[in-house]
Design goal:
Elements lengths: L1 E7 L6 H6 L2 E7 L5 H11 L5 E5 L9 H5 L14 H12 L4 E7 L4 E10 L4 E5 L7 H4 L4 E6 L2 H15 L4 H20 L8 E4 L5 H23 L3 E7 L3
Parallel strand pairs: 2-6, 2-7, 3-6, 7-8
Antiparallel strand pairs: 1-9, 4-5
Bound molecules: adenosine-5'-diphosphate (ADP) and cytidine-5'-monophosphate (C5P).
Amino acid sequence: LQRTVAAEQPSTSSPDNMHKQPFVIGVAGGAASGKTTVCDMIIQQLHDQRVVLVNQDSFYHNLSEEELTRVHEYNFDHPDAFDTGKLLSSMEKLKHMQAVDIPNYDFKSYKNNVFPARRVNPSDVIILEGILIFHDPRVRDLMNMKIFVDTDADVRLARRIRRDTVEKGRDIGAVLDQYSKFVKPAFDDFILPTKKYADIIIPRGGDNHVAVDLIVQHIRTKLGQHDLCKIYPNLYVIQSTFQI
Ligand code: ADP
Ligand code: C5P
């Protein structure tokens, strides 16, 4: 039996800061596991809330001229491929209700300085999505809820082949080489080990409507608690669990 208790907020603390902080959700998982699809489903169901989506892809380092000439030797699945400092400072600003400019990344030119940058305004809910967003503890610590999208490797590879050849115009041989040289080893070494940090693991990604419904219900409950703080600024909510 779970009971919600409203109590007097001590005068020294700051209930305003408490309820103004957005609810931050992290969505990790292998490439082509269905992260974006799951995020879109959550955003669609939360249609009456202000939600913004931030992609880790936006924080890929730009490649030097030399790296560009040998792009097939570049590991885009290694944690060092991302500017995590910039990702962290952008997320911290959003968490503190400040607007940020997020770079646009172009998978064809391998550049993240496609202008104009995307202006992201603070919102009730911020969803951060990406293969390695659970890798850095400082980024993990910003999250109120961590979701790992768990889709079989063969399904991920099949989707990746279709996406990279059809949408990105890449050669199938290059896609398979990149997969065996970088994508699969990095999944095993860096992505899969972060699954343990997830609060929720979604098997089958976007096909799992039950999981998405439960997640949306939980977010609504959390946002409802924030709203209660807005209506009664002198009150704060303690959630306590009683065993019966
Ligand atoms: P990620 O963000 O993890 O890379 P996406 O959600 O972009 O994954 O999905 C990768 C590809 O697989 C996309 O082309 C998408 O249309 C397709 N896809 C995603 N989920 C499903 C699904 N449940 N059934 C069929 N295709 C899917
Ligand atoms: O959207 P998704 O999570 O699939 O994006 C991550 C994947 O994009 C990585 O597996 C990485 O190999 C790939 N990538 C790429 N080319 C780039 C940047 C990333 O193939 N220029």
